[in-house]
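Revision sheet: structure tokens.
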Amino acid sequence: MPKNESLLYLKALKEDGIEHVYVQKRSDPSPAADGKVPQIEILRHKLAQDNAGIKTTQPAAKGNVSHQDIKASIPRVELSPSPESRVSSPAIEELRAKIEKCKLCGELAKTRNKTVFGSGSMQAKVVFVGEAPGADEDEQGLPFVGRAGQLLTKIIEAMGMTRDQVFICNVLKCRPPNNRPPAPEEVVHCRPYLKQQLEIIKPQVIVALGSHAAKTLLQTEQGISGLRGTFQKYEGIPVMCTYHPAYLLRSPGEKRKVWEDMKKVMKLLAEGYGE
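Predicted:
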């Protein structure tokens, strides 16, 4: 990416409350001819440690941090999906077809344009679960493609990932008319579909975006403010509950809290939980 475009992108992230980003290097830094690592690589090393919640130590002398020391100490999270991860399994296709034909919620079946199954990698280590599709999602048949989705994409990219490397879905697979909250019986009808998706993908971490996702996954009546920031469990899988991106658009001052939550998710992945 050209330098000017990079600066504009970083500025946009900062405006969204994201002050640190994960940088996934395509190759390990090479030492200079004198065996020393350039200062920019030392800076990247510190950034990676800070993002993972690791205290950095000051080099003994400027420029004397060895190439091997940096290579060994940077937390590595392998998230690139294999080519096979994009190939739908028979189980996924069967579930997708079942959802497309679903008419359990009469009102939603009549008013929807498209069902919204979800998108991303079938081998994702992180699954983001939202509330329900909105107008843009209903039109395109894809999750989180409106303004809230654009913010979620920025958060995912700041975590050092892409949308292709995670899986994104909603509790409801159809848009409620006028974007009203999901009705209790609609959640009951759709929850088995979400359960099957998670059983097929087997993620290491689930991020519940908003109150409805958290309550559905955890079967609790506790509000999102009391749940966010700490890991809960869904059938043995860690669940980080955090604010929905749509809420952040209305309350931008809360973006910092969400970023703190995402740093905990990154740290858990870096530690290799569940492997």
